[in-house]
Design brief:
The complex is a heterotrimer of chains A (328), B (305) and C (386). With 305 residues, chain B is mainly alpha-helical. Chain B has eleven helices and two strands. In chain C, helix 3 packs parallel to helix 4, helix 8 packs parallel to helix 9 and helix 11 packs across helix 12. Classes of the chains: A mainly alpha (328), B mainly alpha (305), C alpha/beta (386).
Chain lengths: 328, 305, 386
């Protein structure tokens, strides 16, 4: 059994090593898959903050993932057609610069998370799960029927957005950007978890009555966690859209919310690197089971069921031989 | 819009609500008694519809098809309760959501494996096809009226079951205090299996009833599952009364939204874009309703905190 | 620590990419690799099975050992389709892509694939964006431009005397295009125009509006399960107005599920199993023998797509892209539709028929009752610079 810190290092190094090996072997598609894992893991890290540390089971994180995606799609499509996004009251131009898009995605999705969180956190338990799902569905139906940005067709961005000094169309370079962002966010989240705020959030989840008595404003702590969580997932959405050079309302669907949850469960709830292990396992299953049988989702279903029923700490839990601290 | 059309649409909303109630009743019962979120409820709805279509195809009898839908859904319900679901009662909601999500994948693809990718045929029986003239000059589908009647009978039956019978007493006792009822010598696990099978049978029945006027295909359970969740959350989870009220509220809101919003927007917009914007808003209407209800009353209309 | 090593590898990878780019240009030695992306799980999996089976039937009949087909399932999700096309292009190194059913998936995949120098032949979707200004020399549509069948339905509604039609479609781009297409050649008045929710299953409210509208005919475009639900509920509503629609809701794959409710409905299609030519007769017979069911519209389109590819492979080496493109453009193959040729935007110029749903023995199917439009070309061709 490995100590969790060592396992985290192994997970991150593997995620880095696989695309580099693929580069050496001239298998560009493996790099694309690794990039997908990195981005989806980032979305999982975002949700994990709310769901794992905070105990807020959000079934609507697709909303932030999609908003991030559309932030990219809308800005880039305006830049592509050289039409300003808005002229009155002040001029906003489209852009193809990744950093600007990321910041926009984080701001937009955090604002949405602030609004949705402020309303949803009035409820708890199943009601919270369902009201977050409802907000996700609102975005989904709005995106489908709103014709300005493609409706169900989505938006295609023909050339990936740019990052100063790099050629993002080269798969390994784009992977590098995503990987660095994932590391930065992981670092931020692990610091956050150990800070006074993280302890308060954990306290609000595990011992809400005790937290109240020591004077923690539970609702505010939860809301802040929910907003940060939404912002991270939004950033992942922008990267995912850039990976595909395409956004569509599917990013808003409840299946997306479910998949992000699956990454966390597969990897291990409230584990810092759980979402990476989970996303990697899911993508590998999806990719290789698909070749085994047309009915591969049956096998996927059984594997998921097995993990939920018998392997409670997920992959990270199984490898470190410990159960999730915030789970049970 | 004429008055008659308005009332006809209200009736359509009611009918849609009753269809949702059949689905939501089982869901809310299972949650109320066992505290389980069952996403696979939509799969049991699909099982019911497929069983009905298969039996109607072999025998030509709609009555037998309905029996088959009840039996098949109850059977599959009992099987998954005994093998999987009962391990989830003590778990948190997150595990329940994930495990039953996995069940959806298994049910959907296994059904496709057995029945193929093409939709199946199931039709309204001759005796119930056609329309009747209601007072006030509304020409209304006999089959849809039948669904309303069946839905109301089921609602009354469930209400009696829970408030008047010995089983119902145990169910209520189990909702309130699980240890106590076990200590009193009631075999709680048999009771749970029965409740789950009953909920599954209701889902199967609604799948068969609705399947006759919709498309019997893999994945048919998912949209209605989401709607059923909206219904029970609005009504207050665990409450049959709440499920009925929530279902009718959702049915009427959705139907009236679909018909009235485009007209409303048409009063100040050009016709084509009014229909587009109006129907976009209509498709979001029930979710807005749900968010509104929860903000006003965070445990739903009839829910207990 | 990661930052440093990453920059190093980033620098190395630029060099590596330059090399691999040069390596990719090598010739395949007469071999042709085709990547098919289609929907094999989830909603619409039946259409994907038809596309695959029609295509593979033609390939099996040709028995050309130099052609390899790789089939992938897109789950009807555009993101997955994009990733599959990356996979097929990057790691399978296919020459030709085909198979996508849905317009939104095609829009996500086709521009990137053609920009990377691959051929894309569409066996089903024909979105507007790819037919006009967005046309591309490597993009061929073997089915129809999306508006075509709706235009034909509009023309047929006018010809059969509709003066006050009620029209409805789901509220998404293909639905909006459908109503626009219908109105292009329809000359009467509109009693009502409705957009329904995508994936909607209950149409009681819409049917009540139709009843109250005083319409003399109905045109609807509701693909898949939506169409089945609508037709069953309409048949049970006691309204007896003539209905027209595009072929999608009356296709072989779903007609058995609609049953009697579809009998007598007139629908527009560029193909029918009773089009009278040798290729079509042989196609219907061999398809039924191979798969135990009647072929659908979709199967006919992918069968034609495969035969078009085969005809071009026989004429030109795919390594010579210009020659291969010319061979495709010539469309020198026996189509199940009879005459088939491409317009300047590489979309078909073809006849569109009116069919009627009939019952043959125990099977519901379609029979041609006459032409609706002859040598019809889409209106966007004029905007295409090719």
């Amino acid at each position: 059994m490995l100590p969790e810190r060592l396992l985290n290092a192994v997970i991150l190094l593997t995620l880095l090593a696989v695309p580099l090996a693929a580069l050496a072997l001239d298998e560009p598609f493996i790099i694309t898959l690794a990039t997908k894992v990195t981005i989806l893991a980032l979305a999982g890290v975002g949700l994990n903050l709310a769901l794992g540390q905070g105990g807020l089971v959000s079934f609507g994180h697709a909303a932030y993932f999609g908003l991030g995606g559309y932030a990219m799609g809308i800005l880039a499509s305006h830049a592509q057609s050289f039409t300003p996004l808005m002229e009155v009251p002040f001029l906003i131009e489209g852009t193809k610069s990744m950093p600007v898009i990321w910041i926009t995605a984080i701001i937009v999705s955090s604002l949405a998370a602030l609004l949705i969180g402020a309303l949803s956190l009035r409820t708890s338990g199943v009601y919270f799960i369902m009201v977050t799902l409802a907000f996700g569905q609102m975005f989904y139906y709005f995106a489908i029927s709103w014709p300005a940005y493609g409706g169900e067709d989505g938006l295609s961005i023909y050339v990936r957005n740019g990052f100063p000094g790099l050629n993002t169309l080269v798969p390994i370079q784009f992977f590098g950007i995503c990987f660095v962002l994932l590391c930065v966010v992981l670092f931020f989240v692990s610091r956050l978890n150990r800070s006074a705020f993280g302890l308060a959030l954990d306290g609000a989840h595990q011992h809400s009555e005790r937290a109240l008595t020591v004077g923690i404003n539970i609702n505010r702590v939860r809301l802040v966690a929910f907003v940060i969580s939404g912002g991270i997932t939004g950033l992942a959405g922008a990267l995912f859209a850039d990976l595909n050079r395409f956004v569509s309302p599917t990013m808003f669907s409840w299946h997306t919310s479910g998949e992000i949850m699956i990454f966390i469960i597969l990897g291990g709830v409230a584990r810092i690197c759980g979402p990476i292990a989970g996303a990697a396992a899911y993508i590998i299953l999806e990719h290789y089971l698909g070749d085994v049988s047309e009915y591969w989702q049956v096998y996927l279903g059984f594997i998921l069921l097995f993990v939920v029923l018998f392997a409670k700490g997920g992959i990270v839990g199984a490898l470190t031989g410990s159960r999730g601290k915030a789970h049970g | 819009m004429t008055t008659i059309l308005f009332f006809e649409q209200l009736l359509n909303g009611l009918q849609f609500g009753v269809m949702l109630f059949l689905m939501a009743a089982g869901l809310t019962l299972i949650f109320g008694v066992m505290g389980l979120i069952n996403l696979a409820h939509g799969s049991l709805y699909m099982v019911g519809a497929f069983a009905a279509a298969a039996v109607a195809g072999w025998t030509g009898s709609f009555a037998l098809a309905l029996v088959a839908s009840l039996a098949a859904a109850a059977m599959f319900g009992a099987i998954i309760e005994l093998t999987i679901i009962r391990r989830l009662y003590a778990r948190d909601h997150l595990d329940q959501v994930l495990a039953t999500f996995a069940l959806i994948l298994i049910f959907s693809e296994a059904t496709r494996w057995v029945f193929g990718s093409f939709p199946l045929f199931l039709n309204v029986p001759d005796a119930l096809s056609g329309t009747v003239m209601l007072p006030g000059g509304i020409q209304y589908s006999l089959y849809r009226l039948t669904i309303i009647v069946i839905g109301l009978i089921v609602a009354a039956g469930l209400f009696l079951l829970i408030s008047k019978t010995r089983v119902g007493m145990r169910i209520r006792a189990g909702e309130n205090d699980r240890e106590m009822i076990g200590a009193l010598g009631v075999d709680i696990s048999v009771l749970y299996t029965l409740v789950f099978a009953l909920g599954a049978a209701l889902a199967g029945l609604s799948g068969a009833l609705v399947g006759a006027i919709q498309s019997v295909e893999v994945g048919m359970g998912e949209p209605v599952l989401i709607l059923a969740f909206v219904v029970i959350v609005i009504g207050g989870i665990g409450s049959i009364k709440g499920a009925l009220a929530g279902a009718i509220l959702v049915g009427v809101t959705d139907t009236m939204g679909r018909t009235l919003l485009p007209i409303l927007f048409g009063t100040f917009m050009e016709a084509s874009s009014a229909t587009a914007v109006g129907s976009a808003l209509a498709s979001m209407a029930i979710y807005i309703l749900m968010a509104g209800v929860l903000l006003y009353k965070p445990t739903g209309l009839f829910g207990e905190a | 620590m990661k930052f440093k090593s990453l920059t190093k590898f980033a620098l190395c990878s630029v060099a590596a990419l330059g090399l691999s780019g040069a390596a990719m240009a090598e010739s395949h030695g007469g071999k042709v690799k085709i990547g098919m992306i289609t929907t094999l799980t989830g909603g619409g999996a039946g259409i994907g099975a038809d596309i695959r089976d029609g295509f593979m039937l033609a390939m099996d009949q040709a028995g050309n050992d130099n052609i390899e087909v790789v089939i992938e399932d897109d789950q009807r999700k555009p993101e997955i389709a994009v990733q599959l096309s990356d996979k097929l292009i990057q790691s399978e190194k296919v020459d030709i892509l085909t198979g996508i059913i849905w317009s939104n998936l095609a829009l996500a995949v086709v521009p990137a694939a053609t920009a990377q120098g691959k051929f894309y032949l569409s066996p089903n979707a024909g979105p507007t964006q790819l037919a006009g200004k967005g046309c591309h020399e490597n993009y061929f549509n073997v089915a129809w431009q999306n508006d075509n069948l709706h235009e034909a339905a509009g023309a047929h509604a006018t010809a059969s005397g509709f003066e006050n039609a009620f029209i409805l479609a789901p509220n998404y781009p293909a639905g909006q295009d459908a109503l626009t297409g219908f109105k292009r050649l329809y000359e009467g008045e509109l009693a009502g125009e409705l957009y329904t929710k995508l994936g909607q299953t209950d149409y009681a409210a819409e049917i009540a509006q139709i009843r109250a509208s005083g319409a003399d005919g109905i045109y609807f475009f509701l693909p898949g399960g939506m169409g089945i639900s609508f037709l069953k509920q309409y048949a049970d509503s006691g309204i007896d107005l003539p209905v027209v629609g595009p072929a999608f809701s009356f296709d072989q794959g779903i007609l058995q599920a609609v049953g009697e409710a579809a009998l007598g409905v007139q629908n527009t299609s560029q193909w029918s199993k009773d089009i009278d030519n040798e290729t079509n007769k042989a196609f219907v017979e061999t398809f039924q023998a191979a798969y135990g069911r009647l072929p659908s519209l979709y199967a006919s389109q992918s069968f034609d797509t495969a035969n078009l590819i085969l005809s071009a492979v026989a004429k030109a080496d795919i390594a010579d892209q210009d020659a291969f493109r010319e061979a495709l453009r010539a469309a020198d193959f026996a189509s199940v539709r009879g005459d088939f040729r491409f317009g300047n935007n590489q979309h078909p110029i073809q006849d569109i028929y009116v069919r009627e749903v009939v019952k043959e023995g125990e099977i519901y199917t379609n029979k041609i009752i006459g032409p609706s439009l002859t040598d019809h070309q889409d209106v966007y061709a004029a905007e295409c610079a090719l």
